[in-house]
Amino acid sequence: MTMPTSATPAAAFADVTSSDSTLRRFLHGLPGVDAVGLEARAASLGTRSIKTTAKAYAIDLAISMIDLTTLEGADTPGKVRALAAKAVHPDPTDRTTPRTAAVCVYPDMVATAKAALAGTDVKVASVATAFPAGRAALDVKLADTRDAVAAGADEIDMVIDRGAFLAGDYMKVFEEIRAVKEACGDSARLKVIFETGELSTYDNIRRASWLGMIAGADFIKTSTGKVAVNATPANTLLMLEAVRDFRAQTGVQVGVKPAGGIRTTKDAIKFLVLVNETVGEDWLDNHWFRFGASSLLNDLLMQRQKLATGRYSGPDYVTVD
What we know:
With 321 residues, the chain is α/β, with parallel strands linked by helices. It contains 13 helices and eight strands. The chain has an eight-stranded parallel beta sheet. Helix 7 runs parallel beside helix 9 and helix 10 packs across helix 11.
């Protein structure tokens, strides 16, 4: 298969996205995924051992990459303000602790989060487009996005229409992503969520990754955290390979965000090893790699204190989110 090359994705893929048939031909022409090989490589990288100084660096890096998240029907302004305070000072007893990358909330909580984070470099991310199911008309999804951006969201996490994707209506998914990207304007970066646990196959995850990037995603994201199967080392490795190959073809760098099910320091370090070994240092920064998590931060803080003091403080050391 001949891959397009250009300085900009729009120019590179104009022919590919000119019709349903050309888009389908391109996506189904992507190399098939060797599932056994993919899972074996992910498992092998997950056995790497990181100690002492390198571990301390990895913990701080992971903290700085967290999108600290609350996406519950019972969210209140007070809960969001408390989460914002934790994002700015994750460990109030140790001001050397890095801030998290962002706080992620529903659109109606963006203004509250924005006010609570004023004067800091912590971003406000908002889910949109009828999260988590994505079952709404396009005008509703765009209104959802515009409301969040107008309220001050720095980043939008959109969900794709998995039903359309699985039915093979790739052009509908492409056009929705492009429309949401336009609704983000120049002020908000766009993360595109695939819900990899619902896409069934690695081939579909590879196709969704390329579709999202062609459409203008600034980040591709595994999951909503609302289904049984979320981020895994294997599906994240596959998406890292996709962004690596996309940059090689277009010169455009796209971020990756695994989300859901990453709860421990050991888990986070495994993902950082995947990043380092697959795409390298260019992605080892919170501008290009994030963790979507709510409970991960607590374990990172406990492990950080243990490294500093030699004592494991236990879960009562951190706030209960």
